[in-house]
Amino acid sequence: xxxxxxxxxxxxxxxxxxxxxxxxxxxxxxxxxxxxxxxxxxxxxxxxxxxxxxxxxxxxxxxxxxxxxxxxxxxxxxxxxxxxxxxxxxxxxxxxxxxxxxxxxxxxxxxxxxxxxxxxxxxxxxxxxxxxxxxxxxxxxxxxxxxxxxxxxxxxxxxxxxxxxxxxxxxxxxxxxxxxxxxxxxxxxxxxxxxxxxxxxxxxxxxxxxxxxxxxxxxxxxxxxxxxxxxxxxxxxxxxxxxxxxxxxxxxxxxxxxxxxxxxxxxxxxxxxxxxxxxxxxxxxxxxxxxxxxxxxxxxxxxxxxxxxxxxxxxxxxxxxxxxxxxxxxxxxxxxxxxxxxxxxxxxxxxxxxxxxxxxxxxxxxxxxxxxxxxxxxxxxxxxxxx
Length: 387
Hints:
By secondary structure, the protein is an alpha/beta fold. The chain has helices at 3-33, 38-69, 82-99, 120-136, 174-177, 190-193, 201-211, 246-259, 270-282, 293-302, 322-330, 350-359, 371-381; strands spanning 78-81, 103-110, 115-118, 143-151, 159-167, 215-221, 225-236, 262-266, 286-290, 310-313, 341-345, 363-366. Strand 4 (143-151) and strand 5 (159-167) form a beta hairpin.
């Protein structure tokens, strides 16, 4: 690092470190002066905790930069499953998105060779950096989608994973995109300046991806959103014979899915759920069950396209009702978003049926459910390849 670069680095670090320190020291003083005001003290402790987390992240970033500058970033090679990676990411990121009422989805359904060798911790760090940025700069009620897919790789010794993070957040200008990987680079936007950050995350992310031999690509438009994709070549896990023709394998799997008869039901009451499930199973269908509309939407998003043949949707449910869940499914960018959705409800008035149709449902069943009603409904809406 040159002398000028070092001076600029130290100047930036002084500012970035003093900012959370000022909060921590100031809140300690305020808490001491209001020691008998429990609510005030708790508020101060919460702000100290947030500032402490920010300072910890900043120090971690400085250490990462130091390792990169000295060429001491060690690249490991561990056996791992992409499904385990996705599960851990969901556990870490879902609460952050929920705190901002952001719709978060994550999937690895388009990965065929799931067992690989690679640097699990650094891959995790890269994806977390991208996803936390997306969540940070996406307003309440927006969405952040994260998925892994597999690309064809002509080498018999490698598989290629592509990780994509997409949001409908504040986006970036074309001018800023040219500098996004520079240390301490932050967009000239009040929404960015009001959000904690030192502008080191993307610089470190790029360096790690380079060290892993991968590539990163960003597409963004201000006030529209951002899509970041990362491609990495990984080795198949020991003893694993990789599937080479990815598209042929996917076509085969899609044919298997089309032959299955799987119904999704959303019903919050256990006994009612058991009745619907038993009747459907007696009619020869497999059943997945959700306790509320949100869970039904999550199951649908996580499924392969065409996996479910129809959805039986209760109306009155906690967390998310049937109308809301139906409208969310109809708004998804996937071919099966027009899946038959049948209201399954105790509401028997004409206006209730009208409301269901307005929400995007295809048909209407009133409780109590009868076997013949269900059979007729399935015959009407579910195509049976076997006649």
